[in-house]
Structures are given as C-alpha cells and as structure tokens.
Amino acid sequence: YTEAWDADKKSIHVMPDTPDILLAKANAANVSKKLYVEAWEEAKKKGYDMRADAIPIKTAKASRDIASDYKYKETHEKEKGHYIGCPSAKEDPKLAWAARAMALQNDRLYKKAYNDSKTQIHIPVDALSVQAAKECQTLVSDVDYRQYLHQWTCLPDQNDVIHARQAYDLQSDNVYKSDLEWLRGIGWLTEGSVDVVKAKKAQELLNDRLYRTRPEQLKFTSIADSPDVVLAKTNAMQLSDV
C-alpha cells in the first residue's frame, strides 16, 4: 500500500532557485557562527605588528602605573622619615591647624570655662529676684499657710473667738452627724417605705390580671328565642343527617 508513496518520496526534486530555498540559504548564512567570525580568523592569520612606543601601549602602561598601589605609595615611602620644612611640629601650619580644629571639637575643652565659672556665681542678698523668690516660697509654703487651731494668737474668751468656735462646731461633720450615732447598728425593715409603696402601686397598674376580666369569669345566660339562636337551630336541623 505504501510502496508507491515511498518510491515517490525518493524521486521528489526541488529547484535550487526557488524563493524558499534562497531564503533558507540566506538565513543559514546570517546565523552561521563560522561565517560570522570568518573575517576575524583571517585577520588573525595575517598577524599584527605593534611597537613598544605605540600610543595605546603607553596609555595602558600609564593607567596601570596610576592604578598600582605600589606606584601610588612610592613617593610617600621615599619621603617617610625625611620630614623637612619646620623645626618642630608646633610651627607646622597644617599640624597647628589640625590641633586647633581638634581643640574646637573637644567637648571638655569647650565647656571648661563654663564649668570653672559655674561655681563662682555671687548674687547679692537683697537682689530683686532673690526677694521675689523668698516671697513666693513664703506664699506656697505649707508651714506658713496652715495655722492649727490649738496655736491661739488671741485670747480664748473673746467674742469673735467664741463665735468662730460655734461656727466650726456647726460646720464640723462629726458634730453634724453626732445625733445619728444612736441609729448605728439598729435594723430597719423596708416594708411601708415610700419606694416600696410606689413599687407596689406600679405593679398593680401594670398587672394584666387585675386590669382585664376574662370572659369565662363573667356570668352570662343566653336567650333561647333570640334570632341568631333560632337561626342556628334551623341550620342544624337542615344539615342533620337524621
């Protein structure tokens, strides 16, 4: 069944100049790594000649020397131990400036003058602020504000003193409640008090049993010849199966 198809598959020929074949070849040439680096490989085979005094070589050497830590510190290592310029460190402007900056930044030296003068303040005794402070202290002092009753400053038999004692006794809470001391410890029943009576009256007003009378409690006798009774009897006789 598939013999003819297999034979036809082997005999298919595609023209090499069709657009699809040309596009596939162009794409293969674009993505080919070998063709991409072919020019670079040919240039490497030809070789190159670079002199030692070429500008790129000198630039690279200068950049390397600048970046080198050894070359960076070479001048400092040579000058170490050969300080020349000032007889002493105090006469050096840079060292003097650094010492001055350190002294300004030192908190202890900054506050030294203040700490030395802090305990050497002398205020006159009759200064206005001192007198005002003393008067304020007298006004807010609890000792001077309170005058206890037993420290009398006048005769005890004066009229104003006697009147003051009577006023104190009237205003005293102990004297005011002294007539209630005999009631302490005595029991008391709430029956008959105003609140209890008021609660009972309110309960009677809200009691549904006392407010309404139920129908079964009413004495009622139906009239035998009333129209509705006669009609009910007639309907019952008409609907009776007997």
From TrEMBL:
InterPro entries: NEBU/NEBL, Nebulin-like, Nebulin_repeat. Keywords: Actin-binding, Repeat. The keyword Repeat applies. GO terms for cellular component: Z disc. Pfam families: Nebulin (PF00880). Signal peptide: none annotated. This is NEBU protein. PANTHER family: NEBULIN.
